[in-house]
Amino acid sequence: MSTSARKLRVGIVGGGFMGRVHGRSALVAGAQVVGAIGSSPDRAGAAAEATGAERGFADLDELLAADLDVVHVCTPNNTHLPVTLRALEAGKHVICEKPLATSVQDAAGLHAAALEASLVGTVPFVYRYHPMVRELRTRIAEGEAGLITSLHGSYLQDWLAGADDQNWRVDDEAGGPSRTFADIGSHWCDLMEFVTGDRIAAISAQTRTIRGQRGGVDVRTEDLATAQFRTEAGVVGTIVVSQVAAGRKNRLYLEVSGTESSFGFDQEDPDRLWAGRRTESRLLTRDPETLSPPAARVNRLPAGHAQGYQDAFDSFVGDSYAAVLGDRPDGLPDFAAGARSARLVDAVLRSAAADSAWITVENS
Description:
By secondary structure, the protein is an alpha/beta fold.
């Protein structure tokens, strides 16, 4: 996952938290972070400092005019479509924050544009890059679970639990029509489909807005959502996602129940995977000496040295750069995954608006 074959030159659009995460991963992967832009020309210097870029650029035109291979899009959701399109038109490969776009049509359009331009486009569904997630995926593919009977879990946060908590994502004009499900439910669904190789075929959902006003402004995006679903293989499942669950900081939990074995993965304890059978339950620990080859490929540290979110992000960016250089890394989430996520979010919103009616999720 190194760019040692050729030092890629990258630019970063956005100097906030995600811009910092992307910038660090770019440097770890051996890329040259040529420049960054902020929310305005006078934020150029701050964006460069935050992302580790060599300099700040005044605007997107100036950045795209530079000699770049890859552009990282780390801006509010409603800007992903125009910024990514302009980067693709300029001949740049793109790593775009999720959601890829705020509508099915726009996400599909970006996927088509990247394909037409023969450019790499990826979306950071980075929980795929925890080694124990790859271990889980391998064990399921090898039939260790037996017949999968149910899929369930949650993604719980509390950063918007307070009456005065505010963020641009709350505004549906900036964040899009869905907040909680598009922001974190999308991660859970991507993870579930990735590890099982099975896709959600139909979904019945409900959403709720707990804080109807924030800062004197009406809130039209959901604080939480619940859904039941069935997959193409006929497996049934449930999911709960919330950004108002006090005490839960970033707990993504997925459990796969099978007739032979069940498995549980907790993103807040990513070095371990729970494995249960009728005769015993045990914790599998991330250890490069015992990991399957797919899991070992994304392992970065010796056993006993905690490996977490930033490490997963580093692996994702490394794989994205490898794809730019002509490789085909296994499990890389591309714009097709971003478009798939948009269809799932759309199905959830349509179901909730129709009193939890079952909605078929298009897979094309």
